[in-house]
Amino acid sequence: xxxxxxxxxxxxxxxPLPDRAPDRAPDRSLARLTDRLSDRLAxxxxxxxxxxxxxxxxxxxxxxxxxxxxxxxxxxxxxxxxRLCTAYGMTMSRLLAMVEDGFTPHVRKADQxxxxxxxFQRRVASPGNAALAxxxxxxRLEPDTRIAYDAPPVPDLEHHLMxxxxxxxVTLDGVAHSLRPGDAxxxxxxxxxxxxxxxxxxxxxxxxxxxx
Length: 212
Prior knowledge:
Blueprint: E1 6-7, H1 27-47, H2 52-59, H3 63-70, H4 78-88, H5 92-98, E2 114-117, E3 120-126, E4 134-141, E5 146-149, E6 157-166, E7 168-172, E8 175-179, E9 184-189, E10 193-196, E11 203-210
Parallel strand pairs: 1-5
Antiparallel strand pairs: 2-3, 3-4, 4-11, 5-10, 6-9, 6-11, 7-8, 7-10
C-alpha cells in the first residue's frame, strides 16, 4: 500500500510489527503471525516458480528485502504487502486470511488485523476467504493525507465504499468524487486511484471488495 503524502514506493527497510486493535493479542501472537506470513510468502513465490529476482522486478520490492521477509527477519509494511499482493493478483486481506487458522464465521474485533502506514490505517473487519467472494475493510485517513495506487491487486476488482465520517476525495480515471458521511461510491477498478483528505479533516469509511 502506498505511503501517506506520496505515491506508492517500496520500503525495503526493517519495519515494526503491524499495529493491532486497542485490545490486541500478546506480542507472541503477532510473532507467530509474522512467521506464518513469511512462510506463506515463500510458498506463494515457489508455487509461481518465481526467483527472488523475478519477484523483485514484478513487485518493485528489492531482492534483499524480499529475502529478509521470507526469513521472518523483518515484518512487512502495508506498502510492501500491497505490492506483493499486486504481483500475486490477490487482495491484502485475502493474503492475511491464508495465514489464519481456517474459516471462522464470527470474527471478533480483537482478532481483526490492523495495519498502520503513515496517515493510513486499515482494519480487516471481514477477511477474504476462499469460501467467500467479498471482504470488508474499515479505513481511516488522517487529515492532509494522500495515498495513490498504480493499479488494483486484481484487475476489475469490484469496490463499494461507504463514507462514515469526515471528508474524502477519490479520483478514478481522472474523475474526482467528493464524498461526505453517508455517501457511497461503487466502481470496478482496472487502473490507478487516488484518495485524499483535506488539511482540516480526516476520513473514516468502509470498503467492500468483491473478487471477480
